[in-house]
Write a structure and sequence with these properties.
about 60 residues, alpha+beta, two-stranded antiparallel ribbon, extended
Length: about 60
């Protein structure tokens, strides 16, 4: 199983890097966990569309 490095906060001001295995998530695991009836929607925050338009205009 593939590994990844994660930061573990041990105590305030102390972080330890640890190796954890990356879980193997299949395409139907969300349905098995009871998430099939949820809909995830994303939008920009109020004014975000205008800010994004200005940013793209500046680039």
């Amino acid at each position: 199983m593939p590994k990844m490095k994660v930061a573990v906060f041990v105590e305030p001001g102390r972080i330890v890097l640890d190796e954890k295995s990356i879980p193997d998530v299949g395409p139907l695991d969300g349905f098995l966990a009871g998430l099939s009836d949820h809909t995830i929607r994303t939008t920009l925050c109020p004014g975000g569309k205008e800010r994004m338009r200005r940013l793209m205009g500046a680039l």
